Amino acid sequence: MKMGYQINEEKVFNSGHAACPGCSEALAMRYIVNTLGPDTIGVVPPSCIAIISGPQPLSSMRMPVYQTTLEASAASATGIARALKAKGNDHTKVVVMAGDGGTYDIGFQSLSSAAERNEDFIYVCLDNEGYMNTGSQKSSATPYLAYTASTPAGKQTPKKNLAEIMAAHRIPYMATATTGYPEDLARKVAKAKEMKGLRFILVLAPCLDGWGLADNAGPKVSRLAVESGVFPLYEIENGERYTLNYGSKGTPVSQYLALQKRYRHLNQAQIEEIQREVDLEWQRLQRKLAT
Amino acid sequence: MNKNNNRILVNGNHAVAYGVRLAQPKVVPIYPITPQTPIVEKISEFQAAGEMVVELMTAESEHSAMAACITASLTGVRVFTATASQGLMLMHEMLHYASGARAPIVMFNVNRTIGSPWGFWPDQTDSLAQRDTGWIQYYCEHGQESLDTVLQAYRVAEKVMLPAMVMHEAFYVSHALDIVEVPAQEMVDQYLPDFNPLHRLDPEIGESWGNTVNQEMFYRHRRDLGLAMESVINVAQEADLEWRELTGRGYGIIEEYCCEGAELVIATMGSMVGTARDAVDNLRKEGVPVGLIKVKLFRPFPFEAVRQALRGVPKVMVLDRNFAPGTGGFLHQELKAALYGLERGPAIHGYLTGVGGTNISPTNIAALVREAMSTQPVTSSVWKG
Questions:
Q1: Do B26 and A39 touch (CB under 8 A)?
Q2: What is the end-to-end Cα distance of chain A in Å, rounded?
């Protein structure tokens, strides 16, 4: 579909950071900032991203990074974007890299407002489906029946559909991406870089520790999330123009769940229930793609 | 405004807006709250009329407004915002963030009661409860002083690299009309140089802010913040002296009024100062030896100036339009601490007056003076209506 995209990296992200070996989030950060290039200012709330950014006076990225409070990323990015505009700087990019807790939950109010005002920055949510930096607690991005330390019997409500919520703000660009498809992720960042206004990219970033994955399973589980239809990769422009990049190949959801200890408590009936929900969502998305 | 006359009739909040226009901030994040709203409305009008070139950000909350103030300031532009009451409460987390980031933001806070229950009345508890957030704090008596103090606050904040909040009270000052002199832009430009910070968020510099630090770094950072705050006393005095030279108006970090030979000195802040002035004038006419000190700069607290002013005074009567449950009036607490150990230090009466916005007249204050003169003070603050 989008085969043949050549990743064009400028070395902004460096080795020697503090991420776990095999961390998907660090991989995502690499493709994001290396695509944006060094003329970028980053905004990062408390998260693993903040840890990977580096303790003072070290930095894993050759660009200024402002570390803000958990709920204020979009407002902090707005302040930078507006100040750059006031200074007549029309070239420096502003990018937020925040986790799902800082985006779906506590940071959602300021994000929604920035989207409504169509502020000129890129917001990337690195979604590992829970508060993994604090030891795996439930967020509103945690999927149905997934184990976290605060949902020991499995979460009883579905994951919030943030992709659709952001698109409903009619922002210029909304895209989903995941680390198992690095060319697709880099292409979306490059596309967003050339646009103006609020651009939102939702990146599924499997957490080895929080999901209970083998050290080398990050890319594999990321690809299975797409192939099973759990996390389709698509774009929505101006809230209405849908483009599918990679969707379900009909791979059973059970194959995706089986790699993750956070689902090992599930019985057969629950697995089937998840399969039905995924199928329904996939059909809903296809209807939107068809219109 | 008449070309030949820069004196205008405006309410206190609009006077603030004229001061802000003269300071020419480049980014102004705003969120409405009574009774502050006329400040940002007026700034919006100035922008719409092309009289101010400014990025107005209509935030969805005061928390976001302050978050944006911090980063805009760190990106190297002058910023302003205004708030009151619950808005200031919601900003609390970001107030610490701002001073920690050494962002010289100037904010105007219109003092209003904090809920619950709901109220709209003049009461200084909102900003006084923020006294430990690392912000410079000024309390003003009238619109002219508020306008002048906004400009002084920028000068001081940008010199010491700390944020500053300037206060006047709900309605008594915010909505009261008064004749205010608006200084000439050229004069203000000379007084307040362009904001051009050495450290800023800029890819050409590559400096970051906010990353985790170790214990020793945190210790040094807090110590440096404290040293910057201490330096405000001299910087603020200098800024006020120069303003007096340029405009003929100066306020001092504290003001002593009729303190010569006073047997009792009233100490208060904000709009209560004007009422107390009248009370002192009336009492002096009757031959009662009473004076007044106005505490204008509350953070940093002007310990030395206050000790100097009250050395040898037999009695002090503090009037607090604010209240901290468990300790009493804020100024009462601070004055007791400031005067502790002073040789021939005064006996201190602490009166809670006007808390919640109740009306206190010069007659009320005169009666309290007579009472304080004839009684011995108790340790805690006393409710006096």
A1: no
A2: 19
Per-residue HEC secondary structure of chain B comes to: CCCCCCEEEEEHHHHHHHHHHHHCCCEEEECCCCCCHHHHHHHHHHHHCCCCCCEEEECCCHHHHHHHHHHHHHCCCCEEEEEEHHHHHHHHHHHHHHHHCCCCCEEEEEECCCCCCCCCCCCCHHHHCCCCCCCEEEECCCHHHHHHHHHHHHHHHHHHCCCEEEEEECCCCCCCEEEEECCCHHHHHHHCCCCCCCCCCCCCCCCCECCCCCHHHHHHHHHHHHHHHHHHHHHHHHHHHHHHHHHCCCCCCEEEECCCCCCEEEEECCCHHHHHHHHHHHHHHCCCCEEEEEECEEECCCHHHHHHHHCCCCEEEEEECCCECCCECHHHHHHHHHHCCCCCCCEEEEEECCHHHCCCCHHHHHHHHHHHHHCCCCCCCEECC
| Structure confidence by residue, pLDDT tens digits, B41-56 | 999 999 999 999 999 9
Residue B94 and residue B73 in contact, taking contact as beta carbons nearer than 8 Å? no
pLDDT of residue B362: 98
Contacts of B27 in chain A (CB under 8 A): 79, 82-83, 86
Tell me, what's the pLDDT at A3? 57
* pLDDT at res. B4: 46
Residues of chain A falling short of pLDDT 70: 1-3
Tokens 């204050």, residue located:
B365
Tokens of B176: 């009261």
| Residue B240 exposed, middle or buried by CB count within 10 Å (0-12, 13-18, 19+) | buried
Q: Do B72 and A80 touch (CB under 8 A)?
A: yes
Confidence check: pLDDT of B2 > 70: no
pLDDT of B124 above 90: yes
Put simply, the answer to whether B27 touches A63 (Cβ < 8 Å) is no
Report the residue of B56, B57, B69, B215 to disrupt the A interface, i.e. the one with the largest count of A CBs within 10 Å: B57
Q: Rounded CA gap, B141 and B276, in Å?
A: 11
ipTM for this model = 0.97
For an interface test with A, the pick among B27, B61, B75 (most A C-beta atoms closer than 10 Å) comes out as: B75
Nearest CA in chain A to B207: A64
